Amino acid sequence: MNKRIIELLEQHEGSYLSGEALSKDLKVSRTAVWKQIKKLESLGYTIEASRRLGYRLAGKPSRLILPELLDKLRDTSFIQSVKLLDTVDSTQNIAQRLAEEGAPEGTLVIAEQQTSGRGRLGRSWVSPMGKGVWMSLVLRPDIPLQFASQLTLLTAVALCRGLKSLAPLEIGIKWPNDLLIGGKKISGILLESTAEEDRLRYVIAGIGISVNLEDEDYPAELRGAATSLRIVLGHPVDRAEVIAAFVSQFEQLYAAYRQSGFAPIQTLWEALSVTLHKPAKLITPGGTIEGTPIGLDERGALLVEQSDGIIVPVFSAEMGVPSE
Ligand code: BTN
């Protein structure tokens, strides 16, 4: 039925087709038509609905085309294979399964839509069809488990630099790895590690970039806190370009990290951070810390100076503003 609705709307491109005409052609009720229209919207079609006039096709989902994407990635030697999927629960799950089966470092899993996209701290991640970059990268770094957070910071720097290379964006990193524009979140990074003894076996770097989402794609409670490249720039952005920009930066930074360790990443992260030198409250599993973040240490921990002058390293926490 969906296919037929699209066919009919396409035949009337630019003008409205009444709900009655659709229901007659499909031999279903107008409520059934409306339900299908909602389904099409969830698949990435933009359909304008007017009580008086009916429905008008205003936009089709944009698809990533594998050969086009591979062409944009032609200069990278880091990416070994790209798996481009339609609808998945979470690209993290697919990449993890591939890693368990022996997939090499540089395996990239991308999906058009995630039904159970996940974020840090057990949150869910809004991943509508065709609107963003939802991807997971398999890494096999030869580093101790306690350094895994360095990779989170590296990934945030790569993404920040990648997005800045596409457009003059005022974009900064909120510790540890949220990218913000005008105080609103535009992307998130989730690193999931599997270790043996205290060495990492593999890491799945999950990256979510809100590229072409519009306000109505977010649940109401997120609208004030989230944004997208499309909202900020005022026009849609080619998702393949976004992926290629990230990969290019990641490849360079990961090579520098393997050669020279965390120091170069630390400097870049600190320069892009919007977190440093502003009072903050960090909710850690061991309790709440209030103070001023002053930098990173060589392990990748955030150094927070408390009011008593003591400097505490923080590896993992939820960051908020301090209480009065
Ligand atoms: C966060 O800010 O909380 C992290 C969000 C990470 C989202 C990405 S989208 C691709 C990958 N698959 C997931 O399920 N999550 C990550």
Distance between the termini: 57 Å
- The total of beta strands comes to 14
Strand order of the largest sheet: 3-4-5-9-8-7-6
Radius of gyration: 22 Å
Helix percent reads 25-40%
Number of helix segments? 9
Order of helices and strands: HHHEEHEHEEHEEEEHHHEEEEE
Give the DSSP E fraction (strand runs of 2 or more residues).
25-35%
Task: Summarize the model shown.
The chain is an alpha+beta fold and 324 residues long.
Folded structure, characterized:
By secondary structure, the chain is an alpha+beta fold. It folds into three domains: 2-59, Winged helix-like DNA-binding domain superfamily/Winged helix DNA-binding domain (Arc Repressor Mutant, subunit A); 66-272, Bira Bifunctional Protein, Domain 2 (BirA Bifunctional Protein, domain 2, 2-Layer Sandwich); 280-320, SH3 type barrels, CATH 2.30.30.100. 32% of the residues lie in helices and 28% in strands. The protein has helices at 2-11, 19-26, 30-42, 66-72, 91-100, 148-166, 229-233, 239-260, 263-272; strands at 46-50, 54-59, 81-88, 107-114, 133-139, 171-174, 178-181, 184-196, 199-209, 280-284, 287-296, 302-305, 311-314, 318-320. The strands form three sheets. A seven-stranded mixed beta sheet has the order 3-4-5-9-8-7-6. Strands 13-12-11-10-14 form a five-stranded antiparallel beta sheet, with no helix packed on it. Helix 5 (91-100) links the parallel strand 3 and strand 4. The termini are far apart. The model has no long low-confidence stretch (mean pLDDT 93). Residues 90-92, 114, 117-120, 123, 125, 127, 134-136, 178, 188-190, 206-208 line the site of biotin.
